[in-house]
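WARN retry 2 of 3 for item q-0093 after timeout on previous attempt; input resubmitted unchanged.
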Amino acid sequence: MEKLKRYLIIALLMSFSLGISRFLSKEIFIESTYVVRPHLDLYLAMRVRSVVTPVAELIAKLQGKTSSNVDKQTVAERYDALKNVPFSQIASGVAAHEKDGVAETVYDVNNIKWINHTYTRLDGSVVVIKIPEGQKPPPDGVL
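OK item q-0093 returned
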């Protein structure tokens, strides 16, 4: 009986380790590389919120509360009010406007100044990618 218990504990620990490594490889690192995702804290908060929000809405519906519908209506109304706010030019080909916590960003790809950059991939192939002027190109061999 002791052997069975020991083997079950080892199997559970190995399963837990596999789950942790899969989580890290998909959520923490970018595209199976050693590069840690930029703004990791914001990304993980967004991922948690994307799971928690539907669950909270389901619980509210089961309890007969309709507060989420009111929130969606107010967001729609605020977005309609945003249409009257003029766009501010942020950079070449990028404009945005904001009002009452609702924001919209518009990218006009035709007006962005692009620079061609020769990039070497992990497999050794060479491709030419376009990067907005003034941006730092990714290091070779990341993707």
